[in-house]
Design brief:
By secondary structure, the chain is an alpha+beta fold. It is built from seven helices and seven strands. The protein is 40% helix and 21% strand. Helix 3 runs antiparallel to helix 7, helix 4 packs across helix 5 and helix 4 packs across helix 6.
Length: 216
Amino acid sequence: MLQTMVAAEMLSASDDLRYAIGPRAVGTALAIVGSLDVRTLARRHLLELAREIGDDVYLAMQLGRRIFYADRCIGTQRISLDIRLGESLSLHATATGKLFCAYDSRLASRALAAPLKRLTARTITDAGALQAELARIRANGYSKSNEEAVDGIVGYAVPVLQTSGALAAAIHVSVIGGRATRDHERALVSAARECALHIERSLGHVRPNQVHQETP
């Protein structure tokens, strides 16, 4: 029965036969809760962000210990990276995974305790280096994956905060190849932060003084 459910993508299995919810099960859950506040309220703002910056924009959420993309808005670029909704994201190599770890100490502990699998030549595989990276993310207010999960892809993630300061979701932007210039990064992060503020306002959360952090 478990093998059948894995084949149907209702479950996923690790190399040591640990089972977790699969992408199709998450997709089914998302269809059932299509009125989920964050996803529904964020959609318009994400579409506007994708049109403004031209790159693909994703909304990331957390389900238990899993981080996944719940929505995607296609940018205007001819070439894009097709990441399936509902798939579990690497905690140590993706911009989104690192962002959630930076804001959730329990999730960070889980990531640091596990072997840091090398996905590309740039993947962080040292626990001390990952801890330092999470500290930088908290200080900067955004996360970056510089071809750490997929060769040729630079990812950025910006937090969408709840009133408590915890993450309600994250905005992720995938940038291909030569588009990941310093100027594009500054414009992208600034636009993504503004998008996050609009989503937070829609959720009834307004940050004190609406302070914008500068991109280092």
